[in-house]
Amino acid sequence: MCETDQKQKNTPRVATGDRAILPEGAKTIPVYIMGKQYEVPETLTIMKAMEFAGFKFLRGAGCRGGICGACPTVYRMAGDYKLHFGLACQTVVEADMYLAQIPFFPANRANYSIEDMSGQPELIHALYPELFRCVACNQCTKACPMDVDVLGYISALKQGNIEKAARISFDCIQCGLCASRCMGEIPQYHAAQLARRIYGRYILPNAEHLKARVEAIEGGRYDTMLGDLEGMSKEELEKRYVEREREPDFAEVGSWQPKDTQHL
Ligand code: FES
Fold this sequence. Notes:
This protein is α+β, with helices and mostly antiparallel strands.
């Protein structure tokens, strides 16, 4: 264990998590944002710590919930050569972090219409020939804040296995940190997005129950009920919502039906 890791291990944590309110006894710690030192409460996420330090996010912040991929951040700990990666809205600050945000990384995105494609992997190879520049260094996987096996899905794409690539990359939030580290200059996340689109459009079987439900909606089956709801006041709608029949939280799939089945 390096000295920094040891120091972090021995430092008592007052609290972790995405909290803006300081618990009793919480202290401030030094972090470095774009090279300048700031004292911030140790309980904050990087995003909130930066706001605490006076930064205002015009870019690099979106959902604040770890989903949109707008806040990728690179950091290093004092005394440690290693680069670390995280989402600013999810990662809690630690003492002596050197932080820089990468809200956008320029990566090649191919032009295509999904309607003009098919389930053939050669199309992905033609649109993203740089996939074959991969040298399997695995820096992409190490940089992923979502723990996606990026090298795994790149290998699957090279082998023409779209389903495997789509499944492995399912948690990708398109933050671009993988591309920022790639010595082959591959836009991994764009290629994976195309794989998921092709998988959903051409490989997964169509959901027949969804098709039937859309046809019922388009055929006007729910028009009267929706019209009634539209005519209700806010209070009536709230009452209806509170009194609705709820599915039990732990009902076995397919085992529950509401008493009133006329809208199923
Ligand atoms: S702001 Fe959306 S992932 Fe962080």
